[in-house]
Write a structure and sequence with these properties.
Length: 497
């Protein structure tokens, strides 16, 4: 087995280990499906990575370093003992290890203390494996993975992303939508992040936006002080325990050793925030289509109280930004359309356009978020401090004449290139209208009751002059895509029977 001392772990070898780990977990009667197996693997991976990336490196960087995990609870204490197995191992993990980790606290209240992260993660961790022997086999496999070198970290990050993707596919069945990597990469790039800025994702899920932001800012880092400042400025809030665990692991694998993640209801946290908690940048894909409980809704001002989560997040973000702060957010078409004096959505959009410069809306094609939802979505970019004078719209077109994306043919990073070229850099200079781009005065939007669901005006002209044969071919292609989606759905449903 290759290690940091003899060489790096190859991607193929690592993938083989992960496959063996998952095969081992399939044998255990306590684990049912990936929604059980992947969290089990993730918390073990987290402890292994934490031991190598934090506990073993800490004394080398700081002679006064105090281990966050005391003996005999460190990975290198109990996991390396191959004779520690069966009922004895299971009793230790269930009755001692997990309760110990869940009870860790930093009495000084230091936000950088990793014990706070460990405690929050393990408060909701359960060892679901019933066989102590299979648990030993799984621990042995995880122990073969190394996190010593940058090459090892890069390799593990790649494999972990594939695990997250499968986790997202499974979670999608539970109504949770995750942001495809091309989308969060585009949103981060077009936010033009700078060193020293505080960055928040109040619905951070598995940490995709925060990891992408760190990867972007790493290119600007020149000193260790800057690196620590960037890590401290990346903040996330996540309500559910499983995504919180996955986000913590994801950030640890990307060399963020003390993730600034909070497990809480982000709406309550933002409503209770003070001026000192405001941030420079918000990058997020808030949950939509859900309903918040009444106690949360009542935290919002009269006239803005709604159970629709996407509206509540947008309102809370407006107050969470500093005066010159900016935001990139995903919203569904339904949110853009809401109009009328009695519409809470319209009131929130009015607040948005009066307090911020809503300079760009990028319209995404149907299927961008497949397989979670076919609802068309949009990316809104705005800056706080000045009212909106006009809104630029840009419509992303799928390649090859396709009408939508699917699970098997998802969006790719390259498909944002035309929009990036049109964008005009950080100052958005020299933008021009064209087949995919158009602008609308704020006064027109106000007169429409703050309807932002504005279709591409060039598409209608194009359709009017197209031959009937072409239109019929497009209709057939669309019906075929719908049939393919239905077949995929039927296969997934039959797989659960």
């Amino acid at each position: 087995m290759a290690s940091a001392k003899t060489g790096t772990t190859s991607r193929a070898r690592l993938a083989s280990i992960i496959k063996s780990a998952r095969d081992t977990m399939r044998k255990d009667a306590g684990l049912n499906g990936d929604l059980d197996r992947l969290p089990q693997l993730s918390w073990l991976l987290f402890l292994k990575a934490f031991d190598q990336r934090v506990e073993q490196v800490g004394p080398m960087l700081n002679p006064d370093y105090r281990p966050a995990i005391e003996k005999p609870y460190r990975w290198s204490d109990w996991a390396a003992d191959r004779d520690f197995s069966g009922a004895e191992l299971k009793t230790f993990v269930d009755g001692k290890l997990i309760p110990y980790l869940a009870g860790l606290k930093d009495s000084a209240g230091n936000a950088d203390d990793p014990r706070n992260v460990l405690s929050t993660i393990f408060q909701d961790v359960i060892n679901r494996m019933q066989s102590g022997t299979l648990l030993r086999d799984l621990v042995n496999l995880v122990d073969q993975i190394h996190f010593d070198s940058s090459d090892d970290i890069h390799t593990m990050s790649f494999v972990y992303e594939s695990i997250l993707k499968e986790m997202r596919d499974a979670a999608g069945d539970s109504g949770e939508f995750y942001t495809p990597r091309p989308v969060n990469r585009f949103m981060v790039q077009q936010s033009f992040l700078k060193l020293g800025e505080s960055i928040l994702d109040p619905a951070c899920g598995t940490g995709g936006f925060l990891v992408q932001a760190y990867e972007e800012l790493r290119l600007l880092i020149e000193t260790d002080t800057q690196r620590r400042q960037v890590q401290a400025n990346l903040r996330g809030i996540e309500k559910k325990p499983l995504p919180y665990l996955l986000a913590s692991m994801n950030m640890l694998l990307h060399s963020i050793d003390a993730p600034r993640l909070i497990r809480d209801n982000a709406l309550l946290r933002m409503r209770d925030a003070t001026a000192a908690d405001r941030v420079d940048v918000v990058l997020t894909n808030p949950p939509f289509g859900g309903e918040e409980e009444r106690s949360v809704v009542q935290k919002f001002p009269k006239g803005y109280q709604t159970q629709e989560t996407s509206w509540l997040f947008l309102h809370a973000i407006l107050d969470q930004l500093k005066r010159d702060g900016r935001c990139a957010i995903v919203l569904p078409n339904g949110s853009l359309f809401a109009t009328g004096e009695n519409s809470i959505g319209a009131r929130i959009k009015k607040k948005l356009m009066k307090e911020c410069n809503l300079h760009t809306i990028v319209r995404l094609p149907q299927g961008t978020f497949a397989p979670y939802t076919q609802i068309p979505s949009n990316l809104l970019f705005f800056e706080k401090g000045q009212p909106t004078e006009q809104v630029w719209f840009y419509e992303i077109s799928p390649p090859g004449g396709r009408r939508s994306y699917t699970k098997t043919k998802p969006m790719r990073v390259e498909e944002f290139k035309p929009c990036i070229q049109w964008w005009g850099g950080e100052k958005r200079e020299n933008r021009e209208e064209g087949p995919n781009a158009w602008k609308v005065p704020a006064s027109d939007i106000e007169q429409s009751g703050y309807n932002l669901d504005i279709a591409n005006p060039h598409t209608g002209d194009e359709l009017a002059h197209r031959p009937p044969k072409d239109l019929l071919n497009d209709l057939v292609k669309t019906e075929q895509e719908i049939l393919s989606l239905l077949e995929d759905l039927r296969g997934r449903l039959e797989g659960k029977l």
